[in-house]
């Protein structure tokens, strides 16, 4: 394996034995060579191959049960593959499912020592890092209590604090992070970002499109144990969403479409040639905050973190005319919802409604959403607007008592400014990319700067 490769997965398959009845397991153990097998095989992973380069950050996405955790466990060596090989080069620290790696009867402090030792640190090295670990975890006196008394959030805090403080060369993070509160999640992500900048290889499983786009150089889409696609995060996420929200009778067709897409165009680079790299001169002005935000009473859903970002996931509010951006927000559902869909609206300072869109028609809205589910609404748009200041609305609609109603609605939830552009020919608010010409050679000759 070349020294540029941190993880190489080659033809990995994993089959689990499924026993219909408890005594079948015993029968299989007692009669392993009998003609009849007492179990059926379930393939959680099928023939997966990919490499992760040293210093690369790769996101793994997929629907529930697609095999993500199984794959991470194989990479971390806590599960062995039924076929194929997983080669890992470098000290690996993993934050897998809650509960892995800690002894519930030991205190937080004891578990830090236990975990640190398992990850290859000497006692003296752990002693030197203990204060940093405790400070990052920030769980106060609980560090001296047995971890079985911890809340799941405290557990994650400590596990993460250990994982990032053992100087890993490879960091593997499962969904576990979503257990912490938002402030802690933010702290973790900025630390992961720093580690990534320092050259640590990061493998990251998440259901959050925003996190994958924000953090990863590349993304992999797993489905029913197969790797359907690998490529630029935004490209992969768009297809993952298509699959995740496909009605049951269309899932197979969408899978095939994604697979054929993967055989053809799966851009490996995060840049999008259609839109160019020029969006990078857009900026974020922290002082630009709307003072006119109105939140309507929530009816079972809550819109959070509405903002505009570049295609590569950078938060911006000073935009360049003609470039492409994403207006995005999350919706947390507090009760079950039916026929849910999200909407956006761009307005001028005086409230003139310039452009709006919804995520689906009413007929194609998400049929049923469970309490606790989260949406990430994304509206990709070209900024075809005159220089000036604009406000954004966000709304999520659903069916209440048979009629469509707002489950949450926020007016003027975000704002942005469009930068003036040299040589702009369009007038008024919207630039329709008009191709203007003037007939007559004399007129053509007289246009342009005055002579002299
Ligand atoms: N020990 C096991 N025995 C039998 N089946 C298993 C076992 N572990 C996992 N599976 C099955 O393998 C499939 C893949 O599971 P895995 O946990 O890897 O999925 P995942 O993509 O991480 O899902 P999620 O997003 O829900 O966490 C699932 O159908 C799961 O039920």
Automatic annotation (TrEMBL):
PROSITE patterns in UniProt: ABC_TRANSPORTER_2
Positions of region (Disordered): 264-283
SMART domains named in the record: AAA
UniProt keyword list: ATP-binding, Nucleotide-binding, Transport
Domain ABC transporter per the UniProt entry, residue ranges: 7-249
GO cellular component, as recorded: membrane
Superkingdom assignment: Bacteria
GO molecular function: ABC-type transporter activity; ATP binding; ATP hydrolysis activity
Family: Belongs to the ABC transporter superfamily.
Name under which the protein is recorded: ABC transporter ATP-binding protein
Species this protein is from: Tahibacter soli
